[in-house]
Amino acid sequence: MSPSTGGSTPTAPEACQRASTSACTAARTEVGHLEGDLITGAYNRSAIVTVFDRTSRHLWLAEFPDDHGAEATLVALCEILGRIPEHLRRTLTWDQGREMARHQELVELCGIDVYFCDPHSHRLAGQ
Q1: Is there a contact between 70 and 9 (Cβ–Cβ < 8 Å)?
Q2: pLDDT over 70 percentage in the chain
Q3: What phi and psi, each to the nearest 5 degrees, are found at residue 59?
Q4: Residue 89, Cα to own-chain centre: how many angstroms?
Q5: Is residue 9 a contact partner of residue 67, using CB atoms and an 8 Å limit?
Q6: Are 77 and 54 in contact (CB under 8 A)?
Q7: pTM over 0.85
Q8: N or C: which end of the chain has fewer CB within 10 A?
Q9: What are the structural domains of the chain?
Q10: Left, alpha or beta for 57 (phi > 0: left; psi -120 to 50: alpha)?
Q11: Helix (H) or strand (E) holding 63
Q12: 43-70: per-residue pLDDT in tens?
């Protein structure tokens, strides 16, 4: 699983999938519903990606050696998701950050459904 580097970089779509919490996701009864985020350090000089399983509470991290734009985030997420067995990769919910501009490639490469929180409910996924 590695992202392609060619072609144009898409922007995060206005009409992308919005997070809708299903009963099993909300009840935290099914492993594989993940939440992700990009955490940046002081002056944006460092960053890590976090992926958290809502049920098991397992946390995966990936660091960025250089920049933390859409390409680097795609690479980091492919690396993290590659560590998670395929049958445990059901959904990934993210906020509205530009770092996920290449989310459609992530869907194709890793076979996971990607959802975005409503821009007016930053942590909808955590309900």
Answers
A1: yes
A2: 72
A3: -125, 130
A4: 11
A5: no
A6: no
A7: no
A8: C
A9: 23-126 (3.30.420.10)
A10: left
A11: strand 59-63
A12: 988 999 999 999 999 999 999 888 899 9
